[in-house]
């Protein structure tokens, strides 16, 4: 675990001790709030704490608002720029977290612990540390006397991990943004030695969708079976859908990704990635990538059965059988079109389909804006010179989805570098190397300044 310190050893030294200490202190306090949807949700209290930190750091109290929504809330803090006509720079994130049961963890998930160079706790990676680093960076800019030309707005949603009502509300309020930096996306990859390998920014994400399949029958006594059986009919449809492959696709973002990321994969996967980038209809490349769970979602839409339910008694023919199909839809397709394609695949009118998606909307890719790409390249170069930078596409769904759906350009741009073996977002014993803090602040100071001028 001492390798947690290896990544910043490759970074240039940054000298913002006040901001660094504040970021870690705020992260530890933020983790201690149980900001989980449901009874006892402490997201509103966490946002109140962050507001106090922003006001103490120079934000006007009236420029930091907390809006309650159901059992949660969202925060919007505005730093007014000198040009009131300029569209704002929005820094987007969330302060809710996925549920964590203390009995399953080695340490209590809501008791922050710094040990062997790591910050442990629910939200250490997703994404309380990143959020508090951003806040500390803004306060540092104020401390330095910086004056932005355009408004800088930091917006933290309160239910990104669940129904995303606050995410939608924020995007509607801030859809006039010049650019949105989603600090819950993108980031750097470390080798297991701790050496920085590459950095990706996210310019698109797949659309999340849930479709419910239902078959109903009259039922009857199990001793008198009929040809039509709801469970059998549904099962047959699910097998067809499971065997089906959507047409592989490639957009400009992912073409660049495959060419660049191939350098860090094993030879077989690397060759398939390059071949697919050259020709997305290459059958051998498709077979290789589709067989790899870490790659199949990058080459097109995927749909998989996640829930089934059927029957009502051990000695009765089923009157009803249902299943949930979860899809991650490639940018450029509407859920209705994918559902219609699944209906054609099932090829059984007895199987009815219903879109039961909550908290998701289709959104296209953000353009590869030179101002954003240039600012990210400059910022990362200050702390990790020479580390390759290229775009990527997320499997969805983040707050960027709502901004893109509303017409605002949004980009995942987190500066956190992490090893694959340390990636425990949504899982047990979540942790992040605290040595990320110093270079991340230098990165944010550069990025926020360049994009708010």
From TrEMBL:
<dbReference type="Pfam" id="PF01546">
    <property type="entry name" value="Peptidase_M20"/>
</dbReference>
<protein>
    <submittedName>
        <fullName>M20/M25/M40 family metallo-hydrolase</fullName>
    </submittedName>
</protein>
<dbReference type="InterPro" id="IPR002933">
    <property type="entry name" value="Peptidase_M20"/>
</dbReference>
<dbReference type="InterPro" id="IPR036264">
    <property type="entry name" value="Bact_exopeptidase_dim_dom"/>
</dbReference>
<keyword id="KW-0479">Metal-binding</keyword>
<feature type="domain" description="Peptidase M20 dimerisation">
    <location>
        <begin position="204"/>
        <end position="350"/>
    </location>
</feature>
<keyword id="KW-0862">Zinc</keyword>
<dbReference type="InterPro" id="IPR047177">
    <property type="entry name" value="Pept_M20A"/>
</dbReference>
<keyword id="KW-0645">Protease</keyword>
<keyword id="KW-0378">Hydrolase</keyword>
<comment type="similarity">
    <text>Belongs to the peptidase M20A family.</text>
</comment>
<dbReference type="Pfam" id="PF07687">
    <property type="entry name" value="M20_dimer"/>
</dbReference>
<dbReference type="InterPro" id="IPR011650">
    <property type="entry name" value="Peptidase_M20_dimer"/>
</dbReference>
């Amino acid at each position: 675990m001492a390798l947690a310190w290896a990544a910043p050893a490759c970074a240039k030294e940054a000298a913002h001790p006040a901001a660094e200490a504040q970021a870690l202190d705020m992260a530890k306090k933020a983790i201690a709030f149980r900001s989980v949807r449901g009874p006892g949700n402490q997201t509103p209290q966490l946002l109140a704490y962050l507001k106090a930190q922003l006001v103490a750091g120079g934000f006007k109290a009236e420029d930091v608002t907390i809006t309650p929504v159901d059992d949660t809330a969202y925060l919007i803090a505005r730093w007014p720029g000198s040009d009131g006509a300029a569209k704002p720079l929005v820094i987007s994130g969330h302060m809710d977290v996925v549920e964590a049961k203390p009995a399953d963890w080695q340490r209590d998930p809501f008791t922050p612990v710094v040990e062997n160079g790591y910050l442990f706790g629910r939200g250490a990676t997703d994404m309380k540390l990143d959020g508090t680093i951003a806040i500390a960076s803004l306060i540092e800019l104020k401390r330095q006397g910086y004056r932005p030309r355009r408004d800088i707005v930091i917006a933290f949603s309160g239910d990104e991990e669940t129904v995303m009502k606050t995410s939608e509300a924020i995007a509607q309020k801030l859809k006039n943004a010049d650019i949105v930096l989603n600090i819950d996306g993108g980031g750097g990859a470390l080798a297991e030695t701790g050496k920085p390998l590459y950095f990706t920014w996210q310019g698109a994400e797949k659309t999340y969708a849930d479709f419910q399949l239902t078959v109903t029958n009259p039922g009857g006594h199990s001793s008198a079976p009929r040809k039509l059986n709801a469970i059998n009919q549904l099962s047959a449809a699910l097998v067809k859908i499971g065997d089906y492959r959507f047409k592989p696709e490639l957009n400009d973002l992912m073409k660049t990704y495959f060419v660049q990321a191939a350098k860090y994969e094993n030879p077989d996967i690397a060759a398939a990635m390059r071949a697919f980038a050259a020709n997305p209809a290459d059958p051998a490349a498709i077979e290789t990538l589709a067989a790899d769970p870490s790659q199949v979602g990058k080459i097109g839409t995927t749909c998989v059965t996640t829930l089934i339910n059927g029957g009502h008694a051990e000695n009765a023919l089923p009157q009803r059988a249902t299943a949930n199909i979860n899809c991650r839809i490639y940018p450029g397709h509407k859920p209705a079109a994918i559902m219609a394609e699944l209906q054609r695949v099932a090829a059984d009118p007895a199987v009815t389909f219903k879109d039961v998606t909550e908290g998701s909307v289709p959104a296209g890719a953000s353009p590869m804006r030179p101002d954003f790409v240039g600012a990210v390249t400059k910022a990362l170069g200050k702390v990790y010179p020479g580390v390759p930078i290229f775009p990527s596409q997320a499997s969805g769904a983040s707050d960027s989805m709502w901004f893109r759906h509303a017409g605002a350009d949004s980009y995942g741009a987190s500066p956190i570098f992490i090893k694959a073996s340390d990636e425990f977002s949504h899982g047990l014993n979540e942790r992040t190397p605290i040595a990320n803090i110093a270079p991340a602040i230098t990165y944010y100071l550069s990025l926020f300044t360049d994009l708010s001028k």
